[in-house]
Amino acid sequence: MPNFESILFIFILASSVFALLFALFSTRKVLRFQEGTHMMKHISASIRKGANAYLKRQYSIVSIFFICMFLILICMAAFGLLTWFVPFAFLTGGFFSGLSGFIGMRIATASNSRTANACCEGLNRGLRVAFSAGSVMGFTVVGLGLLDISLWFLLLKFVFKLEVSAIASAMLTFGMGASSMALFARVGGGIFTKAADVGADLVGKVEAGIPEDDPRNPAVIADNVGDNVGDVAGMGADLYESYVGSIISASALGVAAFGGDIKAMALPMMMAAIGIIASILGTFLVRTKENATQKNLLRALSRGTNFSAAIIAIAALPLVWGLLGRENIGLYFAVLAGLIAGVLIGQSTEYFTSDTYRPTKNLAANSETGSATIIIGGISLGMLSTVLPILIISVCVLFAYFIAGGISDTNASMGIYGIALAAVGMLSTLGITLATDAYGPVADNAGGIAEMAGLDPEVRRRTDALDALGNTTAATGKGFAIGSAALTALALMASYVDKVSGIEGGAEKIAHLDLMNPTVLIGLFIGACLPFVFAALTMSSVGKAAQSIVLEVRRQFREITGLMEGKADPDYAACVDLCTKSSLREMILPTVVAIVVPVLVGLVLGCSGVVGMLAGATVSGFLLAVFMSNSGGAWDNAKKYIEAGQHGGKGSKQHKAAVVGDTVGDPFKDTAGPSINILIKLLSMVSIVFAALVVHFSIF
Amino acid sequence: MPNFESILFIFILASSVFALLFALFSTRKVLRFQEGTHMMKHISASIRKGANAYLKRQYSIVSIFFICMFLILICMAAFGLLTWFVPFAFLTGGFFSGLSGFIGMRIATASNSRTANACCEGLNRGLRVAFSAGSVMGFTVVGLGLLDISLWFLLLKFVFKLEVSAIASAMLTFGMGASSMALFARVGGGIFTKAADVGADLVGKVEAGIPEDDPRNPAVIADNVGDNVGDVAGMGADLYESYVGSIISASALGVAAFGGDIKAMALPMMMAAIGIIASILGTFLVRTKENATQKNLLRALSRGTNFSAAIIAIAALPLVWGLLGRENIGLYFAVLAGLIAGVLIGQSTEYFTSDTYRPTKNLAANSETGSATIIIGGISLGMLSTVLPILIISVCVLFAYFIAGGISDTNASMGIYGIALAAVGMLSTLGITLATDAYGPVADNAGGIAEMAGLDPEVRRRTDALDALGNTTAATGKGFAIGSAALTALALMASYVDKVSGIEGGAEKIAHLDLMNPTVLIGLFIGACLPFVFAALTMSSVGKAAQSIVLEVRRQFREITGLMEGKADPDYAACVDLCTKSSLREMILPTVVAIVVPVLVGLVLGCSGVVGMLAGATVSGFLLAVFMSNSGGAWDNAKKYIEAGQHGGKGSKQHKAAVVGDTVGDPFKDTAGPSINILIKLLSMVSIVFAALVVHFSIF
Prior knowledge:
The structure is a homodimer.
Chain A: H1 4-31, H2 38-78, H3 85-121, H4 123-159, H5 164-172, H6 174-208, H7 220-257, H8 262-283, H9 294-324, H10 330-353, H11 358-366, H12 371-384, H13 387-403, H14 412-427, H15 430-452, H16 457-502, H17 506-509, H18 518-559, H19 572-643, H20 653-689, H21 691-697
Helix pairs in contact in A: 1-4, 1-8, 2-3, 2-7, 2-19, 3-4, 3-6, 3-7, 3-15, 3-16, 4-7, 4-8, 4-15, 5-7, 6-7, 6-18, 6-19, 6-20, 7-8, 7-14, 7-15, 7-16, 7-19, 7-20, 8-9, 8-15, 9-10, 10-13, 10-14, 10-16, 11-12, 11-19, 12-19, 12-20, 13-14, 14-16, 15-16, 16-19, 16-20, 18-19, ...
């Protein structure tokens, strides 16, 4: 019985498989390249070993958490507070999220030496290896994400024969597994990478005066391992979560808006499927000349992403028209608004963090009066940089809401569906944007290997060119991640309200969501506080872990004779081990906070308090994430700007001041900032899963 | 016809006059002390001259603003969008707010050398002078505040014979004048003081290696002037605004809750009147032994404040009972909740910023690994320190709301009145808490004079003891300021809703305040962004101004021969002038933003958007203010802790790292943090004043 709906879902499933096949194809392409000299193989193997060891231990700790949560969810299901699918959906979400990170990490650690080696032959060749590695990650994430969603859909629909609205409601709870896993991976990996980075820089660059990635630095392998477990595995899990979260929340809201019409549920998934195809086509446009400049490289990458975005913008029109009819064409413009808003936020990020524009140039000039003024300057730059993204998101939300048909009250659910579709639109190009984003850490590692293996300085120059570009694409990627997180969080908030309304006795609990209700207000205060707490916990973890690295590196410099002269090898493994231990220890508290607080708030303040909390967390989380990412990015690039010869250049007083700024910025932009994106969605997911519990047992 | 109400208002008026007389009495007490040596007189005169010159120019710029606003308000009144009283009330609010700052500054600059001189004779004598100077400020603020309120009340009631509800509504708009003036004073003064401080420290301490307050430093007079124009005049205007704002919003909400009962309007004013008497009594308990330790000093001050608080806690019970009857006794507990919450927030601030507790001790230990880790540590400390205040305020709001009778919906306006009364309770001891707070900058100045005039090191030790204590009382004072700002802002939000409902066509504009309304959500985003923008603008202003000071000081060191050897005098006036110019230039933009944005948001998003904006600004402003104040305070005290001999002591690497932290913390705690408190109230005030305009002309 291959009716129209079945064809839709077969197409969606097929696209996800197609993405995974493309990832496999890219993997084989990367593995065909040579790894280079014996020394390079050796270094790459050390990095791989460290990263594998970390992930293994991380996953074993996380499994304990998942088992506990699984049991709790099973108990809740036994008491009728959840359907039986939820505990299992929770596990698959977590598993696939972790798998995305793991695969990305495997390919990244396999391609770093290959990228370095390819750079010996030329820049274009280096770009191809690194970008192919990034593609593996990008398409693994989108492929696994859509696969998980479509498999569950088929299972619930054709095996368990659930109603569409029940399917939508059950699928919403997947997200909690994915978000929990993502938070662990982001926080743990983020602490690891920045502890190693900060520790290595503080003793190596600042105290001992040896260059970055110098093989004499005992923390140098840990630093490179960190790039893989944080920037690759963490980011993979993170974006898996964003992707899945935006699609399932939009699907659920579509069902609500169209009274159980399966086509409204399918639209976000179809958008994602088309996005996969567009992204794959886009990757073929990423190539450059041998003697390419930075500008050529950037143009090569943006050619690919722009092409993909254009395809989606065109293809979404007949898609919306065909599925939901001409009268709902407003939804198309909502998708478009999301797509455009993502690009604009990325550009605003670039303006504030790239050294080709005034803000970062001025920040670099602050180094003239020392580290204190560069810190003050960077913080105020970051805070000021929140204005544009806030305005862009505001316009996007308003536009998506009203164009989707929410002007009169009766169509409010259409408006909310429009907001959710904007998030899907923003993330539809994820396959290729993530590829351009994930290639950065590979190039970074390649540079480290080139340095440690003593390759020709020209090779390092080439990997640096790739890496510098990676900073720009990372900034754009962050724009998408933050923007989509805000939109998805708003959509999930609406899903929560829907969910509660559907529970017996829930409607009255959610009747007073106005800002004059004290439980809403208090929820707002508590929710807004959470990102601050979260940022504080993760940053102080980085500080603690970094301090232990500093002490260990100092110890090795002191105790291992001949180390500074290059006659003896440092004990790299000790630093890796130290980072592993401290980051795994430190990742637990923040995640537990993120899961326990929404339940507690619900039990004390009731459902209206939870909605307040979600709104507060979304708003303050968005602001903090933008602020911290942009401050960190600007400090990083101000330092690079000075290293390029401005304001005294490398080794000057100004440079030292800029290094302090960069070091402060590291946990800002790579630990706290990105984790907050996940936090705000996890809070909603947890609230949705525990909604029935809260409705039945809350005080207010 | 001296009926009961008239007696009430005569009592209120009398208390305000009594406060002013007590301020006069304290002034005469201070002026009886000797100014000391010729040198001390000379230095004190230079500081006074600089401060006067600054204030004169500040007031002339501010007057232009006030004239413009006055004309705008007159036009609005002419179009029937305001009553004719508002423009004049706006002027008096601004005038009295400025006057409070001016008087405080005059007495502070007259007592710095007297305090230094008194410290030659003994600690207790020094404390008495400094505390008396602080008292002048404290009682001027509360006296002028209550005077302004009661004069307007009498005028509106007995001359213009308005209805009680019309009086309450008209009086609400006073606040805008006071808040605008306060914001100018806080921002301008805050930029001045921190630019001078940072500039002086960066070149003097860090580069040239000369001690703080060394007369060879060209910025040293500017630094001392800054203490007066920022920490004294700025704080005076600020707390005048808080005090008046909390009383008038509570009065207005009382009228709404009790359907026009004048007694409900009088209650907050009576609370303030009793607070004045209790505070005056408390001041007589502030005295200590000659050989007093830090602990004795602190105990002396807290004896005074605790005694005052106890009197209020006792006297408020019969007051509430007598005015509003036994059935409304819940309001008494709301007042009490505010009083206790203020103390608790102060204690939480102390825990996080005093070097007798773990957080600041750990922060100081971060200095071992350099300035980057101490910055990361301080930021995460500040962010984490938001949790307790958030919880305290949450419990206070919920308790005050429900105890005041807001459990069922019909009594929601009583609940809101309860929240407003909690704010009044928190600020009722302002007379004495401000006295203990304002004495800090006097002691700080005295120390500077002792240093510059080359007095016996023992004198400096004594002024340092007074100053260190000032840091603790300042922390407590900040707790009150922040907590009351949040409560008052919530009350003003409710007043706004009331106000709009009272305007023709307003009720429907305010009907949908729930969080699923996109205009509310967008308002929330924009409102939450404002404190970030504001902090960014003020901090970058400090950075810019400080840089110009650094360059000027370096120039003088370079060009004036014999300066470092102490053979030639630096050009102090040049630095004072530079600070004046740059801080006045920089104070305009942030204030204009705070006034224009609420009107714009209203015109675009409508009244529901404004409510969202106010909620967002209150929540994120509260968090940012607590975070920034506590980070700044902890850095300051971590530095002092190291200077006291821990972690290598003065001059060590660790100390240098701590100085960087302290320098970053300066604009955090003394410019951005306190300004945000005013900002969140000014936004509400502006919204209230422009409510009619928005109701008639908004898009949504």
